[in-house]
Amino acid sequence: MNIVTARDLSKSYNSLLALDRVSFEITKGECFGFLGPNGAGKTTAMSIIYCYMPPTSGEVKVFGMDVTESPGEIKARLGVMPQDNNLDPDLSVFENLVVYAGYFDISKKAASGVAWELLDFVDLRDKAKVKITNLSGGMKRRLLLARALINGPEMLVLDEATTGLDPHSRHSVWEQLSHLRSKGMTLILTTHYMEEAEKLCDRVAIMDTSRILTIDTPTNLMNRHGGNLEEVYLKLAGRNLRE
Length: 243
Hints:
Layout (H helix, E strand, L loop, with lengths): L1 E12 L2 E12 L3 E5 L6 H8 L7 E6 L2 E2 L4 H5 L2 E4 L11 H9 L6 H14 L15 H12 L6 E5 L7 H16 L3 E6 L2 H7 L2 E6 L2 E6 L1 H8 L3 H9 L6
Parallel strand pairs: 3-8, 3-9, 6-7, 7-8
Antiparallel strand pairs: 1-2, 1-4, 4-5, 9-10
C-alpha cells in the first residue's frame, strides 16, 4: 500500500529548478531515504510531502489525498522533524512538548501524559525543566524527535535528522528511529550520511541536481554497482557527495 505517491513532480523558484519531474512511491511501514548533497532537491521534495509548499507541477498524494487540496488533513497525520532547530527558547523542554501539542487540539492533561512518555523514549526526563538554551545539540535533536511524535503520527518526516551531531549522539538518534521502524511506523528521511542510509533505509532515492538518479534498496545498489553506498553515489553522480 502506497502512503506517498509522486508523479512528474517539479518545483521552481523563479529561474531555479529545484525539482525536475521526479516520480516515486513510498509504501506503508518502510523507511525511505532521499540521499544526496546539499542543493540536490531532497528538502524541497520533503517540504512538498508535508505540505509546507505546493509543487509547481505534477501530482503528490499522501494518505491518498492531494497535497494541494487537503493539506490540513495530511498535516494532522504527520510528524515532522525539521533540519533547523525551531524549539521555543523561552520554554522548558517539557513545556515545548505540551505547547506544541496544542496545535493538534490535544488537551493539556492528555499532552502532559504523552510528553512524559516521549521524554522517557528520548532519554530526556531529567531535562524536563531545563530551558532549551541549556541543552546540547544532541539533546535538541532528540527533543525535536519527541515533539514530532506528540500527535501520534502515522508517518514521520525527518530532514537531516543527525546533521552536526557527534557520533555518539547520532547513534542514539538512529536507535530511536530503528525502534519506531520496528513498530511499523513509516519513516521518510533526507541525509547525506551514507552509513545512516545503509543502517536505516529500506530503499533510497539517490538525488543530484534536482533529479532522482535511481531508487532501490541499499543492498541492491551496492551489489549492482559494486562497493559501498558512497562509492555507488560517486559512480552515479560523478562527483564527491561532500563537495
